[in-house]
Amino acid sequence: MIVTIDGPAGTGKSTVAKRVAAELGYEYLDTGAMYRMVGWYILKLGIDPEDEQAVIEALPDLTLTFHDGRALLNGEDVTAHLRSPEVTCAASFVAKVPQVRQQLVDTQRMIAASKDIVCEGRDQGTVVFPQAESKFFLTAAAEIRAKRRMLEMEDRGETVSFEDLLQEQTERDRRDAERNIAPLKPADDAEIVDTSDLEIEAVVHQLVQAVKQRSVA
To answer: Within 13 Å of residue 13, how many CA atoms lie on the same side as its CB?
Structure first.
C-alpha cells in the first residue's frame, strides 16, 4: 500500500510520516529532502537556483539515494546540510523546473514500486501517486507553522527572527501554490487534517487508524 502525506512546511508532516511508517511497519520516503538535495547541489556548484537552464544542465550528474535514513547525493551524505534557510529557498526554486520534477518523480516511483510505503511531500497524492490507497493533506495556521519551524532551528543551535521566518514561509507557500507544474494543493480524495491544535500523537493515531481501515476495506 502507498500512503501519501502532503502539505506545507511546519504542519508536522515529516515527523508524522516517519511515525506512521514506523507504526505500520512501512518504509518511509522523504521527497522534500530530494528537492533540498538538488538545491544544495546547485548552490555547491555556484549556480543561481533561478537560472533554470543551468539547473537543467547540472541534472545528468546527479544521483539521489537514501540509506538508513541518511540522504546521499552522488554517494556523499549531505543530510546535515539540507535544513538551512539557503537550501530551503533554493529547493523551492528548483522545484519549479519541470525537468527537475520529472527526474525526481521517476526516482520516487521507482523507490516505491511494489512496497508498503509512506511518501511525504507536496505532490505525492496529486501527481506522483494519484492511485495511492490512502492520501492525507496536513495543514496548520501560518503563525503556528512558523513557530514550529523556529523551534526546530533553535534546537539545532540556529537563531532566526520569527518575522523573517514567517515572511520566508509566506513567500515559499506562494511559490509552491502558484507554480505551473505540480502546485501545492490537496488531492481531491485526500483527507485534510488541521494540526494547529493537535499533538503529534493524536495526528499519528488518526492517520494510522485511517490507513488500517482502508487496508481491510
So the answer is: 30
Asked if residues 6 and 139 have their Cβ atoms less than 8 Å apart, the reply is no
Cell of residue 53, nine digits: 537552464
Tell me how far CA of residue 100 lies from CA of 50, 60, 153, in angstroms: 13, 10, 27
* Number of separate domains in the chain: 1
Confidence of residue 215 (pLDDT cuts 50, 70, 90): confident
What digits encode the pLDDT tens for the residues 70-122?
Answer: 999 999 999 999 988 899 889 989 998 999 999 999 999 999 998 999 999 99
Q: Please give the residue range of the domain that contains residue 149.
A: 2-32+85-203
> Residue 11 falls within a domain, yes or no?
yes
210 in a domain, yes or no? no
- Find residue 28's DSSP bridge partners: 118
Q: Are 49 and 39 in contact (CB under 8 A)?
A: yes
What's the average model confidence in pLDDT over 199-211? 97
217 has pLDDT over 70? no
Residue 174 resides in a domain = yes
What CATH number corresponds to the domain at position 13? 3.40.50.300
Instruction: Yes or no: say if 11 and 141 are a contact pair by the CB < 8 Å rule.
Output: no
Angle at CA of residue 154, ends 152 and 155, nearest 5°? 65
